[in-house]
């Protein structure tokens, strides 16, 4: 996930810095920037370390093209859920129902396409609508009736799990029509001459690089136009190089196997879209405001109930999408699908910098948190660590991440 | 008359940046009811917290002699062991426990960790009889009214064999009948030999129960008067509370002359009544009508519980209490302000007295706090233009002199004065015609106060209508063209700038119902 477009905060260098930049070394600039944005970069660095460690321990297996492709496919649904969960947590709530809801929507999709032979695009839309319905039902209870989200979604967790078993009558239902399967396992189609690489993926990577660089340069120019402080030139260049290198690496890895998975494209669109909404849209700002200080947000004219409602509606739709991806990947709907997904999504959000009391967190953070867990999972599988120890280690990782955050905050004296 | 039971000598208490008490002396005689009065922020509550060990020994200077012993209380428990019990303004009862459980909370009738219920109920019944509360001791505290809860607090104090009872504004939350009962009980306890200190600014109450009164002002003891003495009139007490000169702490401002008397006021509130959100029998604002014209600064003076904030917040989108009648007119046309969004839409801004809880998202940046109320102004089709937003807030950082390196500084890193400037910027950016400023200079230093006065002055000069709610009379006198006074939810007066003095205002602020009726 190298879509660093959503992250521009380092541009906020203190005014004194830009003038004095000529005299300081690049390293000092980088370290200074890191120190000011510890919360944002801390987890990214941790993710990098984990990747390097497992790359060494697995003798290079972790970053084999085939495994990277797998890593994306295995974690995509948790990442989709983590995006929605991050919004819920920023708003100061929690959603425990998403695991059951993914299973329920998967079952619904199976009943539609397998039992009733509904065309898959129609089924897809109906499933997303079902997610929206489930999410808005919970949203109404939480936002307008004032029932705590923990209770409502705990009830939802039981309810949707039960409905799943009723729909499937305890059986596994499959297989899905081809189109739907592609959402979970498919790759972008290949065209053009044989280059030993996946052409479309390469092209897409190039376009993405160009887009990110263009966006960053344009932003910088606009900031200069408004006579605002910008990142010092050399640091800006370094940032661009880092972004391009990251995209290039991922592109080459994927292009040398089957190409980019379709779900990665979906995920990419979601990350960029939600990152943009949370940062730049009035709606996103209002989510941060109600999570940060609800009474103050109310007194500022923020329609807190409406915002809360939409946050849960959105979570429902994303849970439905995740449900489709899971079902498509397993090529069957199972009554036991999605167990503990809600906890993985919640853990991803907290590892990625969310706060229990709300008001804090980024979409990119949720993705990084999800990837930390995903890489741990995948790496430990490659090393044949048993699921028992995997759980222990993941638990410790969550504690360490949040503990570091608390320690870091106390150190900065707030 | 009996000798002193309590002597507090040369008490000095400093908080970071503020000297709350500087050289306070207090002598309370055995068996008397001693009143302490003073303006908001005079140091009354702080003094009582020093006495009861909330501020432990060592965190203040000076000495406390209780029953001729030098006391150094480490915490509340230590002072209670000596028989000093404080009942705070906000009651400290657990709503879902019974009366009996509350009375003996932390002090249970128990052996080896198990509660002896028979003994608990017997003792509770006995205590309830003593305070004249006719409720079963197993009733939940949440099910009885505030007045009765106050009595439970006193029963709790009696269970600790109290010798000196401290009551911090005990009648502030009570209606007339409950207040009268409580005052009778204090007199009854006096007959039983219990000494009381009562903090109050209701002068008629002081006259009714107190034997002597000590007046505090700006963290100092001004004087102690014998209430029963003939020369101790209410005027005399008021003079002691306010006696302070106005120096040059305010920007020069040309008073707004009534040139546009004929034009409709920018904001007019008529016959506004608000009920307490929980205790719905109680009117916190009672039939209040005020108005403010463009270019005018109108003050609302009042003591704690006068209903000023309640009025402002209820008008501003029903943000406090239950609306029970009244109309709002903007430039002569009736408008609706049932939600905050409606009020803001009509060009009204309310700048809260409690910036930390109601004014700011403390964990967010200056930038985003300023833009929040009027995000639409820097957004197109729901998308915020961050560059424009940043430019706007940088503008306020400069013009309001907010001391921070960039607008990306989180507001919890700022000082109180700078936080207040952010709140003001936020509402000025919303572009209102009417600004209701609730205690805009509370808890900030003198320099920052002057800056905020200047901003207020400029707002009025630009033709905005300003309602200025404040507990500091000098500040109202220095800034306002007209001053309303409120007491116990009612409007008790309207004084033009020329006639306003601290004495006149204080007189009207302490007017109670008997006087107005």
From TrEMBL, chain A:
<dbReference type="InterPro" id="IPR001851">
    <property type="entry name" value="ABC_transp_permease"/>
</dbReference>
<comment type="function">
    <text>Part of the binding-protein-dependent transport system for D-xylose. Probably responsible for the translocation of the substrate across the membrane.</text>
</comment>
<feature type="transmembrane region" description="Helical">
    <location>
        <begin position="260"/>
        <end position="277"/>
    </location>
</feature>
<keyword id="KW-1133">Transmembrane helix</keyword>
<feature type="transmembrane region" description="Helical">
    <location>
        <begin position="235"/>
        <end position="254"/>
    </location>
</feature>
<keyword id="KW-0762">Sugar transport</keyword>
<keyword id="KW-0813">Transport</keyword>
<feature type="transmembrane region" description="Helical">
    <location>
        <begin position="350"/>
        <end position="376"/>
    </location>
</feature>
<dbReference type="GO" id="GO:0022857">
    <property type="term" value="F:transmembrane transporter activity"/>
</dbReference>
<dbReference type="GO" id="GO:0005886">
    <property type="term" value="C:plasma membrane"/>
</dbReference>
<feature type="transmembrane region" description="Helical">
    <location>
        <begin position="197"/>
        <end position="214"/>
    </location>
</feature>
<feature type="transmembrane region" description="Helical">
    <location>
        <begin position="307"/>
        <end position="330"/>
    </location>
</feature>
<feature type="transmembrane region" description="Helical">
    <location>
        <begin position="141"/>
        <end position="160"/>
    </location>
</feature>
<dbReference type="Pfam" id="PF02653">
    <property type="entry name" value="BPD_transp_2"/>
</dbReference>
<keyword id="KW-1003">Cell membrane</keyword>
<keyword id="KW-0997">Cell inner membrane</keyword>
<keyword id="KW-0812">Transmembrane</keyword>
<feature type="transmembrane region" description="Helical">
    <location>
        <begin position="100"/>
        <end position="129"/>
    </location>
</feature>
<keyword id="KW-0472">Membrane</keyword>
<feature type="transmembrane region" description="Helical">
    <location>
        <begin position="41"/>
        <end position="64"/>
    </location>
</feature>
<protein>
    <recommendedName>
        <fullName>Xylose transport system permease protein XylH</fullName>
    </recommendedName>
</protein>
<feature type="transmembrane region" description="Helical">
    <location>
        <begin position="76"/>
        <end position="94"/>
    </location>
</feature>
Automatic annotation (TrEMBL), chain B:
<keyword id="KW-0762">Sugar transport</keyword>
<keyword id="KW-1003">Cell membrane</keyword>
<feature type="domain" description="ABC transporter">
    <location>
        <begin position="6"/>
        <end position="243"/>
    </location>
</feature>
<feature type="domain" description="ABC transporter">
    <location>
        <begin position="269"/>
        <end position="513"/>
    </location>
</feature>
<dbReference type="InterPro" id="IPR003593">
    <property type="entry name" value="AAA+_ATPase"/>
</dbReference>
<keyword id="KW-0547">Nucleotide-binding</keyword>
<dbReference type="Pfam" id="PF00005">
    <property type="entry name" value="ABC_tran"/>
</dbReference>
<protein>
    <submittedName>
        <fullName>ABC transporter ATP-binding protein</fullName>
    </submittedName>
</protein>
<keyword id="KW-0472">Membrane</keyword>
<keyword id="KW-0067">ATP-binding</keyword>
<dbReference type="InterPro" id="IPR050107">
    <property type="entry name" value="ABC_carbohydrate_import_ATPase"/>
</dbReference>
<dbReference type="InterPro" id="IPR027417">
    <property type="entry name" value="P-loop_NTPase"/>
</dbReference>
<keyword id="KW-0677">Repeat</keyword>
<keyword id="KW-0813">Transport</keyword>
<dbReference type="GO" id="GO:0005886">
    <property type="term" value="C:plasma membrane"/>
</dbReference>
<dbReference type="InterPro" id="IPR017871">
    <property type="entry name" value="ABC_transporter-like_CS"/>
</dbReference>
<dbReference type="InterPro" id="IPR053466">
    <property type="entry name" value="L-arabinose_ABC_transporter"/>
</dbReference>
<keyword id="KW-1278">Translocase</keyword>
<dbReference type="GO" id="GO:0005524">
    <property type="term" value="F:ATP binding"/>
</dbReference>
<dbReference type="InterPro" id="IPR003439">
    <property type="entry name" value="ABC_transporter-like_ATP-bd"/>
</dbReference>
<dbReference type="GO" id="GO:0016887">
    <property type="term" value="F:ATP hydrolysis activity"/>
</dbReference>
């Amino acid at each position: 996930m190298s879509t660093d477009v959503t992250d521009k905060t380092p541009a906020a260098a203190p005014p004194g810095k830009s003038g004095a930049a000529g005299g300081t070394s690049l390293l000092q600039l980088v370290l200074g920037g890191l120190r000011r944005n510890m919360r944002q970069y801390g987890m990214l660095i941790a993710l990098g370390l984990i990747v390097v460690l497992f790359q060494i321990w697995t003798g290079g297996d972790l970053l084999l093209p085939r495994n990277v492709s797998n890593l994306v496919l295995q974690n995509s649904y948790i990442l989709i859920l983590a995006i929605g969960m991050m919004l819920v947590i920023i708003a100061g709530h929690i959603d425990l129902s998403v695991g059951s809801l993914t299973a329920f929507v998967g079952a619904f999709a199976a009943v539609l396409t397998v039992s009733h032979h509904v065309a898959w695009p129609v089924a897809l839309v109906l499933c997303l609508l079902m997610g929206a319905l489930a999410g808005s039902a919970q949203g109404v209870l939480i936002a307008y009736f004032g029932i705590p989200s923990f209770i409502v979604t705990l009830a939802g967790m039981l309810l949707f799990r039960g409905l799943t078993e009723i729909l499937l009558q305890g059986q596994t239902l499959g297989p899905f029509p081809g189109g739907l399967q592609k959402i979970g396992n498919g790759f972008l189609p290949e065209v053009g001459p044989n280059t030993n690489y996946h052409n479309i993926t390469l092209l897409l990577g190039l376009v993405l690089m160009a887009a990110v660089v263009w966006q960053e340069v344009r932003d910088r120019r606009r900031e200069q136009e408004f006579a605002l402080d910008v990142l010092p030139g050399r640091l800006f260049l370094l940032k661009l190089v880092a972004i391009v290198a990251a995209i290039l690496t991922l592109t080459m890895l994927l292009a040398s196997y089957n190409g980019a998975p379709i779900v990665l494209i979906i995920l990419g669109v979601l990350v960029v879209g939600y990152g943009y909404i949370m940062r730049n849209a009035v709606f996103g700002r209002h989510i941060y405001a109600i999570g940060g200080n609800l009474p103050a947000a109310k007194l500022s004219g923020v329609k807190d109930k409406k915002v809360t409602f939409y946050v849960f509606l959105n979570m429902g739709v994303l849970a439905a999408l995740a449900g489709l991806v899971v079902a498509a990947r397993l090529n069957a709907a199972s009554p036991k699908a999605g167990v503990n997904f809600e906890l993985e999504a919640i853990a991803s959000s907290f590892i990625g910098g969310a706060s229990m009391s709300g008001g804090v967190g980024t979409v990119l953070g949720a993705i990084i948190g999800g990837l930390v867990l995903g890489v741990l999972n995948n790496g430990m599988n490659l090393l044949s660590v048993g699921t028992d120890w995997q759980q222990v280690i993941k638990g410790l990782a969550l504690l360490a991440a949040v503990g570091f955050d608390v320690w870091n905050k106390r150190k900065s004296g707030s | 008359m009996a000798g002193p039971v309590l002597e507090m000598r040369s008490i000095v208490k400093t908080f970071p940046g503020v000297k709350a008490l500087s050289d306070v002396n207090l002598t309370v005689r055995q068996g008397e009811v001693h009143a302490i009065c003073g303006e908001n922020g005079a140091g009354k509550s702080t003094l009582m917290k020093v006495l009861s060990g909330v501020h432990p020994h060592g965190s203040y200077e000076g000495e406390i002699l209780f029953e001729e012993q030098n006391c150094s209380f480490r915490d509340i428990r230590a002072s209670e062991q000596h028989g000093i019990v404080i009942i705070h303004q906000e009651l400290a009862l657990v709503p879902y426990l019974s009366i009996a459980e509350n009375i003996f909370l932390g002090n249970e009738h128990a052996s080896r960790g198990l509660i002896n219920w028979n003994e608990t109920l017997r003792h509770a019944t006995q205590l309830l009889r003593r305070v004249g509360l006719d409720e079963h001791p197993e009733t939940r505290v949440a099910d009885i009214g505030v007045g009765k809860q106050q009595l439970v607090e006193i029963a709790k104090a009696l269970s600790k064999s109290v010798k000196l009872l401290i009551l911090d504004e005990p009648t502030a939350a009570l209606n007339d009948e409950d207040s009268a009962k409580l005052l009778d009980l204090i007199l009854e306890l006096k007959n039983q030999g219990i000494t009381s200190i009562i903090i109050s600014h209701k002068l008629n109450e002081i006259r009714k129960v107190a034997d002597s009164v000590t007046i505090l002002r700006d963290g100092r003891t001004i004087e102690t008067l014998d209430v029963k003495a003939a020369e101790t009139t209410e005027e005399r007490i008021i003079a002691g509370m306010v006696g302070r000169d106005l120096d040059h702490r305010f920007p020069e401002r040309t008073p707004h002359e009534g040139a546009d008397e004929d034009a409709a006021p920018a904001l007019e509130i008529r016959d506004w009544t608000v009920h307490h959100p929980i205790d719905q029998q109680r009117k916190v604002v009672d039939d209040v009508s005020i108005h403010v014209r463009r270019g005018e600064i109108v003050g609302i003076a009042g003591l704690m519980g006068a209903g000023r904030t309640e009025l402002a917040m209820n008008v501003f989108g029903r943000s406090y209490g239950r609306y029970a009648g009244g109309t709002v007119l903007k430039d002569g046309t009736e408008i609706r302000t049932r939600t905050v969004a409606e009020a803001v839409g009509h060009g009204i801004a309310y700048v809260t007295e409690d910036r930390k809880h109601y004014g700011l998202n403390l964990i967010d940046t200056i930038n985003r706090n300023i833009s929040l109320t009027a995000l639409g102004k820097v957004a197109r089709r729901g998308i915020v233009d961050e560059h424009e937003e940043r430019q706007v807030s940088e503008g306020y950082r400069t013009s309001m002199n907010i001391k921070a390196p960039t607008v990306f500084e989180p507001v919890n890193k700022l000082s109180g004065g700078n936080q207040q400037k952010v709140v003001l910027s936020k509402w000025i950016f919303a572009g209102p015609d009417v600004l209701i400023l609730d205690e805009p200079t509370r808890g900030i230093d003198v320099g920052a106060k002057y800056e905020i006065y200047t901003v207020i002055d400029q707002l009025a000069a630009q033709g905005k209508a300003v309602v200025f709610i404040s507990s500091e009379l000098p500040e109202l006198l220095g800034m306002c063209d007209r001053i309303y006074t409120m007491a116990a939810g009612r409007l008790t007066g309207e004084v033009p700038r020329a006639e306003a003095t601290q004495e006149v205002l204080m007189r009207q602020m302490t007017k109670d119902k008997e006087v107005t009726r």
